[in-house]
Design goal:
By secondary structure, the chain is α/β, with parallel strands linked by helices. It is built from 11 helices and 13 strands. The radius of gyration is 19 Å and the shape is globular.
């Protein structure tokens, strides 16, 4: 019903990263397709981005905050603080006082897909009229400034959608959701197993660590498989999909997925080159671009698909109203 996006004003280019990391603009572009990303300004936090994206989505939808039945906030590990609930913080800032606050804090980069999946099922209840789903991450605060493996990939952003009931044979038609446990992308300190201490901070255990080869292997395996499984109940094939809204982890991964599906690259929205991997906000950056560009027409078949640390992944198939 409405889409919103917030991007921090601070642009960090590959040339900026060359000054502090053992890397180069050419190396980053060649391996990731990323040329710049956004980092949140000091003094602001993830909920500030959530609020801005949510306000745009509400305005775009014409739905008042008081008409929202649930506020779902998905983030990887960049909530403002462990407690209280960030969904509750956003709900109160919006004035959505009739909404249930729900936090999805460990679905990682699949958080946007999981949030929309949850929102669509909440709307099966006759008492739930509208749901606000927000995906947001502030990776600049949880990536090690000295680690080129993670620092080059990630950016900060928040995206939001307002969901409501669709007409018959429109909206969410089918889906696939699955997971496989892996510690190849993790933050090891700050939980009950390894509480934060001066020693863990000294060793940088509060930062995100990532095995890039494993991420590549899992993403290129599970995203196309999930898309095929989600399309199967519709009797549709990948080449019949009009628009692909796929997690913007890495341009090379996205191109590999489209090649696997034997679909032209032009059917996939691309934002990773300008924003980097924005985690739970990722699919919303692509969806916002597609809707603002008026590329989606009534009756079009959309696939929204993502994978995140865990690993968790999922695909939604929707027909546009």
């Amino acid at each position: 019903m409405g889409v919103g996006l917030h991007l921090p004003s601070r642009v960090v280019t590959n040339q900026d990263l060359e000054k502090t990391l053992d890397t180069s603009d050419e190396w980053i572009r060649d391996r990731t397709g990323i040329r710049e990303r956004r980092w949140l300004e000091p003094g602001l936090t993830t909920s500030d981005m959530c609020l801005a994206a949510a306000q745009e989505a509400l305005e775009d939808s014409g739905v008042r905050a008081a008409e929202i039945g649930a506020v779902i906030v998905a983030t990887s590990a960049t909530y403002d603080q462990p407690l209280p609930s960030m969904a509750l913080m956003v709900r109160d800032a919006l004035g959505a006082t009739n909404a249930i606050p729900l936090d999805l804090s460990q679905s990682a980069c699949a958080g946007g897909v999981y949030g929309m999946f949850l929102g669509s099922h909440l709307l099966q209840n006759d008492l739930m009229r509208n749901v606000l789903v927000i995906g947001a991450d502030c990776f600049s605060r949880v990536t090690d400034p000295q680690d080129r493996t993670t620092r080059i990939f990630f950016g900060d952003a928040a995206g939001a959608v307002v969901m409501g009931r669709s007409a018959p044979a429109r909206g969410l038609m089918s889906w696939d959701m699955n997971a496989a446990l892996s510690h190849s992308v993790s933050i090891s300190a700050g939980g009950a197993t390894t509480p934060t201490t001066p020693k863990t901070a000294e060793e940088g255990m509060q930062y995100l660590r990532m095995d890039g080869r494993t991420v590549w292997r899992e993403a290129t395996k599970w995203i196309p498989e999930s898309i095929r499984l989600a399309l199967k109940p519709l009797g549709a094939l990948p080449h019949e999909v009009d628009h692909y809204i796929v997690h913007q982890a890495n341009l090379r991964i996205l191109q590999h997925v489209m090649d696997d599906l034997q679909v032209p690259h032009s059917r996939a929205e691309i934002t990773v080159d300008r924003y980097g991997n924005t985690g739970a906000a990722s699919i919303f950056t692509a969806l916002h671009q597609a809707t603002r560009g008026e590329r989606i027409a009534a009756g079009d078949l959309l696939v929204i698909s993502g994978i995140g640390a865990g690993f968790t992944w999922g695909t939604l198939c929707l027909i546009a109203e």
